[in-house]
Each structure stands twice: as structure tokens, then as C-alpha cells.
């Protein structure tokens, strides 16, 4: 299908997938994010698209489950004529051989996108994630007085080195991914971007001729994305290409291929910018236990709060929490529901906990449709959005860097058009939840 979307992305969680959706939409590309490989009917409803995405919970899956989910998605992207498939991972690359294996994703998808180059883009400067000489760094929490936050090597990052499911214990992404089935990775360090024309191509060809299974590209600043984007665009023209990385992959590709005048972006028929804005209270569910989310909860003064112990979310307690939340929403109050700060996520049955929280979100939305909902936490977001029963998201605007406001598309009238914000645990400033109450968005 030569007239189909040129760019496809598969998000290993929902929060990151909406960030990629936002970057492509803001660059002027008609983009839609689906929850499953899209049907012909859904594509017809969306109208002409330049880019399509599929959001998943792959980062919380074992390799066999990942393969089962990725095979039909890879086949569908290839059938639609996608030239470059972006396997979208978290900008911190947190994953392991047992959970969210990036190597397992590459081995599954590469058969559909047989280009000999498999670029892995490290770093997303807009989120203060940097890759230098193959090593990944990430900023910590903001400091008082507006000073720039400290930057840590990822294996010494105060949060990511202690992640409850996939702690980052190695900063060199080549070694980190070697354990996941990508040995002998090549490296293009940042110095090659400032060399003479043709030098970068020669370096990449050398890595391919050395039979590297994948090639890691440093990214220290946004300017480094332009030469990477040109390389992606050129190499994917002849043979469909699989690329791995955070939303910086989409940024790089957009730099090389964006419409001549992206300000004249023509919305698709279901674009989120169309139609009246909903009114009513805001509902937030915070399942993340990150320090950044903790500070945002503490600063959320415009909400009635409901604290839950997810380990105790059984049939009986679910009704009690549900009644409290719905009663507050019906009285017009904004509601912030959050998991107990003392909850030991590492020792709990993780899937059971996230599914229970997702069921609670679904029942709140069914009982009392809020005008806007926000779900904080990568895995919590993935399970909760799947539980809602919609089929896609389109872009409305940005709340903060790395966090998009979207509109839910569903066949159920009560859900269709609801505004939804998915926030990773580390994303957003201290006043993030307060900013959700604004009628407009900060794009």
C-alpha cells in the first residue's frame, strides 16, 4: 500500500506511546494511536494517516507473551506498507531478559523489516536523557530555586537504579542489551555527526559489514537527531527498517521528512482538536510510587483525595472505594486516587495489583464519566487504558514535556471523546496535577 502511512511505532507502554504520538502530530503528521493492530474499519474512520502507532503493555511482559503480541502487529505494519517501524521503549531503557526484553522484540519484528541496519537511538534530550559513548544518563528530580537538576549515570540514578520491576544495573546500553539477546552491538558515537559529509554513512556501513545485530547511536543534544533522521529516511526507502529507542526516533525522522509547512496541518476526521471540549470534574489515578509523583500528589491541593491499598483491592473493598470516588465526582469535586505510599510493589503480585487498579478506573469511568482523566504510572496506564475498552487515541495538546493530552476513541458512546492524560512516574513538574484543571492545554 504505497499510499499508506510511512511511519509506524509500537509502544512498549501506553505513556511512552502517547509521547511519540504527540511528537509526530506536532510535527504536522496525521497520526493515530491504536490499542491493537488497526482494522480496516478503524483506519477508514481515522481517515488518511501519515503515521500509525500501536500501544501495548510489552514492557511488563515475558518474552513469549511479547512475541505473541508482536507477531500480528509486525505483520499488520508490513501489510500497510510502513517503511520504518519504531519499537518505542522508555527513554531510560529499563527492561530485562525476563521482562520487557528489547532483544526479544527485535528478534520478533526484524523478519517483517529486513533492512540490515537496526539502529538503536540512545537519549532524548527533551526529557533530559543523554547517551554518550554508549552510556545512558538521566536527570534526577528538579531542585529548589529553579536550578538544573543533577544528571546521573542510569545505573546510579536514585529512582531507575531501584525500579521495582526492572532496576537499571548497567549504564552501557551495549552491555545492557547484550543480556537481552543483542550481542556485539556496534556504536556510532556523537563525534561522527560533526565529521565530513559521507563519513556517517561509511561508519554505519562498516558496522553492518561487521555483522553487528544492531547499532547504537549516541544522542547528547537535539542537533544530533538531524543526521540520524536523514540516515533513517534514506535507509528505509529501499528496504523497510526497524528502529529502537524513545520518542527521539520519531523526532529524528520528522526532522528529515516533515511537511514543508507543518503549520498547515490538516486534521484527520477523528482528530482530537475537533468538537466541543467536555466539562465537569477531573479524575486522577496515581499508581506510580516514584518520588516525582509523590511530590505531585503532595502539591495537588484542588482535589479530594482517596488513598487505597492496592494489595487489599478485592471485591468488597473495590465497592467501598468506588462509592467514595463516584460520590465525590458527582458532587463536582476533582478526585485524586492514589496507591498507599507504603505499598511494597516489589514484593506484591504485580500483574494482580495493576489489573485490580485498572478495574477500579474502568468502574469509575463507567459510573461517572469525568470530563478528563489522568493515570500516572507506566504499567498502571497500560492496563487501565486497555480496561476502558476504547480502540484509539488522538492528540489534543501537551500538559508538559513528555506528557500528552489525548482524546479517547471508542465504539461506546459514553467513552468516545473523553480526554485522557497518561503520565510516566518521572514526568511533569511539581504542579502537574494542578495544571490538569486548566480548561486549555500548554502546547
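-> sequence recovered:
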Amino acid at each position: 500500500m504505497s499510499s499508506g502511512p510511512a511511519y509506524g511505532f509500537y509502544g512498549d507502554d501506553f505513556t511512552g506511546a502517547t509521547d511519540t504520538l504527540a511528537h509526530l502530530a506536532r510535527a504536522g503528521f496525521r497520526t493515530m494511536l491504536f490499542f491493537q493492530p488497526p482494522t480496516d474499519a478503524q483506519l477508514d474512520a481515522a481517515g488518511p494517516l501519515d503515521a500509525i502507532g500501536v500501544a501495548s503493555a510489552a514492557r511488563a511482559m515475558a518474552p513469549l507473551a511479547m512475541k505473541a503480541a508482536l507477531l500480528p502487529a509486525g505483520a499488520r505494519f508490513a501489510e500497510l506498507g510502513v517503511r520504518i517501524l519504531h519499537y518505542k521503549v522508555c527513554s531510560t531503557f529499563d527492561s530485562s531478559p525476563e521482562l520487557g526484553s528489547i532483544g526479544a522484540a527485535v528478534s520478533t519484528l526484524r523478519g517483517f523489516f529486513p533492512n540490515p541496519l537496526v539502529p538503536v537511538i540512545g537519549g532524548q534530550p527533551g526529557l533530559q536523557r543523554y547517551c554518550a559513548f554508549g552510556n545512558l544518563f538521566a536527570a534526577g528530580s528538579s531542585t529548589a530555586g529553579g536550578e538544573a537538576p543533577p544528571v546521573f549515570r542510569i545505573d546510579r540514578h536514585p529512582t531507575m537504579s531501584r525500579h521495582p520491576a526492572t532496576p537499571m544495573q548497567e549504564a552501557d546500553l551495549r552491555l545492557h542489551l547484550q543480556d537481552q539477546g543483542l550481542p556485539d552491538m556496534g556504536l556510532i558515537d556523537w563525534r561522527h555527526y560533526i565529521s565530513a559529509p559521507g563519513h556517517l554513512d561509511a561508519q554505519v556501513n562498516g558496522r553492518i559489514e561487521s555483522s553487528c545485530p544492531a547499532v547504537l547511536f549516541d544522542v547528547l543534544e537535539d542537533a544530533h537527531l538531524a543526521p540520524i533522521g536523514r540516515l533513517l529516511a534514506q535507509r528505509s526507502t529501499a528496504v523497510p527498517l526497524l528502529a529502537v529507542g524513545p520518542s527521539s526516533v520519531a523526532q529524528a525522522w520528522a526532522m528529515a521528512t516533515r511537511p514543508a509547512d507543518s503549520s498547515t496541518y490538516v486534521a484527520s476526521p477523528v482528530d482530537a482538536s475537533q468538537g466541543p471540549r467536555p466539562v465537569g470534574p477531573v479524575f486522577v489515578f496515581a499508581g506510580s510510587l516514584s518520588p516525582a509523583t509523590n511530590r505531585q500528589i503532595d502539591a495537588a491541593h484542588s482535589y479530594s483525595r482517596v488513598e487505597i491499598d492496592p494489595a487489599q483491592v478485592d471485591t468488597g473493598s473495590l465497592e467501598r472505594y468506588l462509592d467514595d470516588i463516584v460520590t465525590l465526582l458527582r458532587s463536582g469535586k476533582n478526585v485524586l486516587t492514589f496507591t498507599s505510599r507504603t505499598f511494597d510493589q516489589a514484593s506484591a503480585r504485580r500483574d494482580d495489583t495493576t489489573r485490580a487498579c485498572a478495574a477500579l478506573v474502568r468502574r469509575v469511568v463507567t459510573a461517572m464519566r469525568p470530563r478528563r482523566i489522568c493515570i500516572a504510572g507506566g504499567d498502571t496506564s497500560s492496563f487501565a487504558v486497555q480496561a476502558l475498552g476504547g480502540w484509539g487515541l488522538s492528540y489534543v495538546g501537551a500538559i508538559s514535556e513528555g506528557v500528552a493530552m489525548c482524546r479517547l476513541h471508542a465504539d461506546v458512546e459514553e467513552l468516545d471523546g473523553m480526554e485522557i492524560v497518561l503520565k510516566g512516574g518521572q514526568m511533569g513538574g511539581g504542579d502537574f496535577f494542578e495544571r490538569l484543571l486548566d480548561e486549555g492545554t500548554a502546547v
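The longest helix spans residues 350-367.
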